[in-house]
Specification:
200 residues; alpha+beta; VC0467-like; ten-stranded mixed beta sheet; 12 strands; 33% strand
Length: 200
């Protein structure tokens, strides 16, 4: 990977908001990057809960939720775009179609490198409702997106730190601890960043 920002691929990385980023939704946010290429970037905020649990959301969708392990899981604010739409980040659920090829199990699934999948079709919700579906799952309403060169500009302005994502932060670490946990992946503590604030 070269220093040329156009060559940076932050797919399966975390963006960690710097203290100078004061937007109400993105302040102290951790964003899991699902896609990043020359055309732009797309990700999900993984540490900002809505007021809904998965059980409540499924009830609104007239789907019983038979996955008791997910009842109290929070639905997250994934970002400012399409906040009425659900995005399910989950472990891979592909089905083999040949010896060397697999197809997504659900109708509308994007495969994120490093193994995760992002599904937006209702069939994954129906699978969870019936007591099946992915074991590891995180659901957001909305997503975050950057146009061509936009994220690179924000990185150049030191709005974000970046680090390789780890699945424990996405699925296991309590929401309130995810910002600090993501910083620890870089060997940092939040107080170390405070000196960066106020230099705008």
């Amino acid at each position: 990977m070269t220093a040329d920002s156009a060559s940076i691929d932050l797919t399966h990385h975390f963006l960690i908001a710097m203290p100078t980023l004061e937007d109400s939704l993105f302040a102290r946010s951790v964003v899991y990057m699902c896609e990043h290429n020359s055309s732009g970037a797309m990700g999900l905020i993984i540490n900002k809960p809505t007021e809904l649990t998965l059980a409540q959301l499924f009830s609104k969708l007239d789907l019983p939720l038979h996955r008791t392990d997910l009842f109290d899981s929070p639905v997250l604010h994934g970002g400012p775009l399409q906040p009425e739409r659900g995005f399910v980040l989950h472990e891979p659920m592909a089905i083999p179609v040949s010896e060397n090829e697999q197809a997504p199990l659900y109708a509308s699934t994007m495969k994120v490198k490093e193994g995760l999948e992002l599904t937006t079709s209702r069939d994954v919700l129906e699978a969870l409702s019936g007591g099946g579906g992915p074991r590891q799952v995180m659901m957001t309403l909305g997503y975050a997106s950057w146009g061509e060169g936009q994220l690179e500009s924000e990185l150049a302005e030191n709005a974000w730190l970046t680090v390789q994502a780890d699945l424990a932060t996405v699925f296991d670490v309590p929401l309130a601890q995810r910002y600090d946990h993501a910083l620890e992946l870089l060997g940092l503590k939040a107080w170390m960043l405070s000196s960066e604030a106020g230099h705008a």
